[in-house]
Amino acid sequence: MSPVIAEVQWLSDEEQATWRAFNLASRIVDGALDRQLMRDADMGHAHYAVLVALSEASDYQARMGDLADLLEYSPSRLSHAVRKMEANGWIERRQCPTDGRGQIAILTDLGRQTIEQAAPGHVNEVRRVVLGPLSASQQEQLRDICETLILRVQNQTT
Amino acid sequence: MSPVIAEVQWLSDEEQATWRAFNLASRIVDGALDRQLMRDADMGHAHYAVLVALSEASDYQARMGDLADLLEYSPSRLSHAVRKMEANGWIERRQCPTDGRGQIAILTDLGRQTIEQAAPGHVNEVRRVVLGPLSASQQEQLRDICETLILRVQNQTT
DNA sequence: GGTAAATATTTGAACGTTCAACATAATACC
DNA sequence: GGTATTATGTTGAACGTTCAAATATTTACC
Predict the structure, then answer these.
(1) Is A45-122 a CATH 1.10.10.10 domain?
(2) Residues of B with CB below 8 A from A25's CB?
(3) Residue A107 and residue A60 in contact, taking contact as beta carbons nearer than 8 Å
(4) In which residue ranges of chain B is pLDDT below 70?
(5) Nearest residue on chain A to B39, judged by CA atoms?
(6) pLDDT of residue B154
(7) How far off is chain B from A95, nearest CA to CA, in Å?
């Protein structure tokens, strides 16, 4: 089942600490944001991201596939999310006129109101939990580091 | 429902980029680790962490509460996870002798074998996805940053 | 133009996590 | 010592995500 294990370079204490800190920080931050949004706006922050993306799109609409690429969501994740948000009245779906397979997600007025109300609390929480504790240079470092990670993973054969 | 919104200091472009990069990197890394473990060892990395914690504990055992604190898991998350892993034969549960409420989770031989087989692949993936792309000083920065975030959130009223 | 391959999206089942409710045992208090 | 309170852990329901399968439409190819 598992290949004969070849070379493994075990993690040093520092490496392990780095990895665990990153892992824990991710989890804590994600949880905090989710709880804040759930408490104040009745949605998780995965749904919030969809609303933001649509509110930034021209005419408040986008094709499912483009939206999924933009957010780096799996098609099915987005589909489920949009179905839920459609039920909430935040989004509508229409057939794409130029491609019969395509579906277009459109932010409704209610959706726009919803995100406008949710945004301030969310931004405050991002500040409280992520940006606030970090110095300007740490923010720069973090951005650099994370962009490095993102590029590396995306340009590799997973 | 929502409080009258007070001051919001919207995110600058740099802040937004930092936050989005962190968020995406977290998601990508987490996903990569999960998929690798699922593929090679039939468990998510939340379960992996439980096995690691137990394998590092004296006598390969720990009380549920201590384990949950150590991993920063909610009691119920741990309970569900352990139930699943008990079904796999990786963990056993016993009553705590000194406290009738307590339960002790014990790593079985099979559990030990399982993690020994899973560890190399996991470590390689951590290297590939997180540590590898970063320079030594970036690793130091990342650790610093994440530890800052962790401390800050934990010492605040959530 | 018709068949095969590729693309876009949805669906349902399985799984993990959260939250609230519950059971049980230990501690505090009088 | 008996009752209220607090601590430990588990349970079940709800929800979001993943994966594999299905459907429908478009593109490529001959």
Answers:
(1) yes
(2) 145-147, 149-150
(3) yes
(4) 1-6, 156-158
(5) A2
(6) 73
(7) 30
Rounded alpha-carbon distances, angstroms, from residue B153 to A71, A127, A136, B5, B116 = 26, 12, 18, 23, 33
Residues 68-127 of A with CB under 8 A from B: 72, 117, 119-121, 123-124, 126-127
CATH of range B24-124; options 2.130.10.10, 3.40.190.10, 1.10.287.380, 1.10.10.10: 1.10.10.10
Give the tokens for residue B8.
């919001």
Mean pLDDT by 10 residues, chain A (158 residues): 68 96 96 95 95 96 97 97 97 95 96 96 95 96 97 70
Nucleotide nearest to A50 (CA to C1'): D16
Predicted pLDDT at A158: 40
Q: Where are the domains of chain A?
A: 45-122
Q: In what order do the strands lie in the sheet with A103-107?
A: A61-63, A103-107, A91-95
